[in-house]
């Protein structure tokens, strides 16, 4: 199991956080594997800065590019909730909190 920290734009961060989006489309340059942990770090492209919020999700499925309209060199990663200290829906605000807190 490997932990991968990846930038995630706010719109997509919120979609993963709410449960509406349970996949990621990524360049397949990190050797992603089922069971790996994605640390989704919210990144604001307008400011060029991280917001300090993070989500963790586990890779539950990997579909490699080159088939079904997925560009070769990319992959689609299925995501599932990751058990953590704060629970599966935890959003961690690294700027304001020392301990993870669960969103209501």
User: Distance between the terminal alpha carbons, to the nearest Å?
Assistant: 29 Å
CATH level-two architecture = Roll
Cα radius of gyration in angstroms: 14 Å
- Determine the structural class based on helices, strands and strand pairing: mainly beta
The largest sheet, given as strand count, sense and whether it forms a barrel, is: 7 strands, mixed
> Can you tell me the CATH topology?
Archaeosine Trna-guanine Transglycosylase, Chain: A, domain 4
Q: Look at the structure and give the mean pLDDT.
A: 85
Which regions are unreliable across 5 or more consecutive residues at pLDDT < 50? 84-88, 94-104
Proportion of residues in β-strands? over 45%
- Morphology: globular
Q: What's the tally of helices?
A: 1
Order of helices and strands: EHEEEEEE
CATH C-level label: Mainly Beta
Question: How many strand elements?
Answer: 7
- The CATH homologous superfamily is named Hypothetical protein
Helix content: under 10%
Q: What number of domains?
A: 1
